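Encode chain A's predicted structure.
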Amino acid sequence: MRKGRATDVGLYVLQGSSGFAPRLEMAMRRWIALVGFLVLTVGGGLAIGFLTVPGEWYAALAKPAFNPPNWLFGPVWAVLYVVIAVAGWRTFQRDRTGWPMRLWWIQLGLNFLWSPTFFAANQIAAALVIVLMLLAAILAFVTMSWPRDRTAAYLFVPYAAWVAFASLLNGAIWLMN
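Encoded structure for chain A:
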């Protein structure tokens, strides 16, 4: 059978010169990658959050007046993890091995390290060092992403603001305890 015959519509779509099948396959790969980033980031963040729920130790700590209520952290992080995943996915689509992608992986590792260090190991000073390194990685990501993908850079701005606040909070808790 030749391409393009009316009886071969399905075959034509798959083999034809329109390039429909390769474009569809590429689109599917992009969406699968996005799902992967969401599962990794949101799933990993929420899993770590559930495994390191603040307990009696945290409740007994002296905290500054600007400490938000505990119920606020979960929803804020859930939204931020989605934003982090989308920024990572966009960066991955553009350049899988460049500095922005490397910085994305670094910030994710530091992000996932902070809760176990603070809540499970009860190491306030070490957690402060980690959160400050996290903030530096986030700001470096924004700076490195800006010329290539401003959307990815903008997606990290609320994350940077929240982590700057978390750094201030972690520092105040360290000084008070």
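DSSP finds eight helices and no strands in the chain.
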